[in-house]
Amino acid sequence: MAIDWWTLALQTINFLVVVWLLSKFLYRPIRRVIEEREAADQKAAEAAQEKTEAADAAREEFEAKRAELSQTLREEEAKLQTQMENEREDVLEKARKEADKLLSDARAQIETERHKTFETLRDQIADLAQDLAFKALAEGGNLEEPELLARVSDYLDGLSEADMADLRADFAGASAELKIVTATPLSTTEQSRWRNFVSEHFGDGKISFETDPDIIGGAELRFAHSVLSFSVADRLRRAAAELKM
Amino acid sequence: MEGSPLAVDIVFQLGSVPISRAVVTTWAIMAVLFVFLSIALRRPVAKAGPVQAALEIVVTTIAAQLREILGRDPWPFLPLLGSLFIFLVLANLAAILPGATPPTGHIETPAALALIVFLSVHFFGIRARGGWQYLRHYAEPNLFLLPLNILSELTRTFSLMIRLFGNMMSHEFVIAIVVFLAGLLVPIPFLLLGILIGIIQAYIFTVLATVYIAAAVGAVEA
Predict the structure, then answer these.
(1) Domains contained in chain A, number
(2) Alpha carbon distance B168, B176 (integer Å)
(3) Is A16 on the interface with B (CB under 8 A)?
């Protein structure tokens, strides 16, 4: 096997031509296209990055504006709250003052009414007391001795026989004593008349006379176990009790 | 079939220069490449059509393979190594065309390619490392290994040539013998096998050339 040097040389040259041919018509165009594509991709990526950054900036601006708006809103809310609080305080103060005024007016009116009522009551009580006094006195308080005795006699005549018997038994006891109490001391004549009156109605017995200014007027017959009162004080008590009923 | 298949088949004379069939086939391959690429990539655009996309896939796949082996930007090496692969594929596949013989089935073409690879290895090595630094690596790791390194340089180039020539030539022999013994249609499976062998041999030749260049530029150990 001999080598044909011409063929070897021509094939060497041929291959170098192939290298040139492929470089010019294959590798360079394809590399250029790939680089253009990569550049376009890079450009698109940069554009996307720019858009992303712009979007980020817009978002940040939006966030800042939103924060600013939130702050403004909070301030306005606080201002409004303060204003409402002040208005509320004003309204409350006004209402409080009106209430105080109404209350003081009501109290004044109540006081006036109370005073008026008190005055009316006092007048009525005075009239009533006067009536009571007149009545008590009319019923025996300021009676003269004979009239008083007549009144006592009428009372005793109105009692039943049993009651009278009890009173006589109470008076006739061994240690019994009838005390005749008056507001002012009785004279001897008046005491004598009383003795005669007692003897006439209850028989003989022990009689004593006492003075008690608290009974105001009239007289009280105090037996051992019972009392017959014809005093002004007793009349007044009974009149007061009737009024309470 | 006349004469030895190993003999140079001179088709015509160009003056005093004999033009062999391998040269004519190579010119035909070059012409086809020129016409096809001129049409296909007349106006390459970013939005590629199907033919341009296919060519882009071929180129970027080769570039990716080179990047894996070289570990650096493959574009400076692509014109040589990519062309080597494409030319070898087309030259080896010429066997399936009726009347054509693959240029790589004759010793001159593998020898020419091996010679170019041998020279390119030193070219890229010196360009990457500098002359002194590149020559010094033949004496590494020891000066006594200098003859062995030089011998290794020569034998690997020789083996590159012989491997391609042997495979393609033997395949041609097998086809010729089978056609002679069995008839016209029987060699078809062998022709299909020939396609596979042609692509594999192109790949092996290119990868080995890439490894040699990678070693020269310091990307890998030789």
Answers:
(1) 2
(2) 12
(3) yes
Which chain B residues touch A21 with a CB distance below 8 Å? 30, 33-34, 37
Q: How far apart are CA A49 and CA B50, in angstroms?
A: 31
Beta strand pairing call for A207-211 and A178-182: parallel
Same domain, A121 and A154: no
Question: How many Å apart are CA A216 and CA A219, to the nearest integer?
Answer: 9
A235 vs A241: CA distance, rounded Å? 10
Beta carbons of B118 and B157 less than 8 angstroms apart: yes
CB A152 within 8 A of CB A221: yes
Whether A164 maps to a domain, the answer reads: yes
With contact defined as beta carbons under 8 Å apart, do A19 and B80 qualify?
A: yes
Domain boundary among A141, A172, A202: A141
- Taking the Cβ of residue A15 and every Cβ of chain B, the question of whether any pair is shorter than 8 Å is answered with yes
Q: Do B17 and A6 touch (CB under 8 A)?
A: yes
The count of other CB atoms within 10 Å of the CB of residue B111 is 23
The B residues from 121 to 150 touching A (CB cutoff 8 Å) are none
Residue A166, classified by CB atoms within 10 Å of its CB into exposed (0-12), middle (13-18) or buried (19+), is middle
Residues A186 and A211 in one domain: yes
Higher pLDDT, A120 or B34: B34
Three-state SS sequence of B24-65: HHHHHHHHHHHHHHHHHCCCCCCCCCHHHHHHHHHHHHHHHH
Distance from CA of B72 to the nearest CA of A (A): 16
- At position A216, the amino acid (one-letter code) is I
Contact A7, B14 (CB under 8 A): no
Sequence-ordered strand ranges (E) for B56-201: none
- What ranges do the domains of chain B cover? 10-217
Inter-chain CB proximity B108 and A40 less than 8 Å: no
C-alpha distance from A55 to closest chain B C-alpha (Å): 29
For residue A6, give the nearest of B199, B72, B104, B8 by alpha carbon.
B8
Per the domain annotation, does A185 fall within a domain? Answer: yes
Eight-state DSSP code of residue B77 = T
Q: Which domain holds residue A124?
A: 62-141
Please tell me whether residues A157 and A234 are part of one structural domain: yes
User: Would you give per-residue pLDDT tens digits along chain B (222 residues)?
Assistant: 445 656 778 888 888 899 998 999 999 999 999 999 999 988 888 788 899 999 999 999 999 999 999 999 999 999 999 999 999 999 999 878 877 788 998 899 999 999 999 999 999 999 998 989 888 888 888 888 899 989 999 999 999 999 999 998 888 888 778 878 877 677 778 778 888 999 999 999 999 999 999 999 876 555
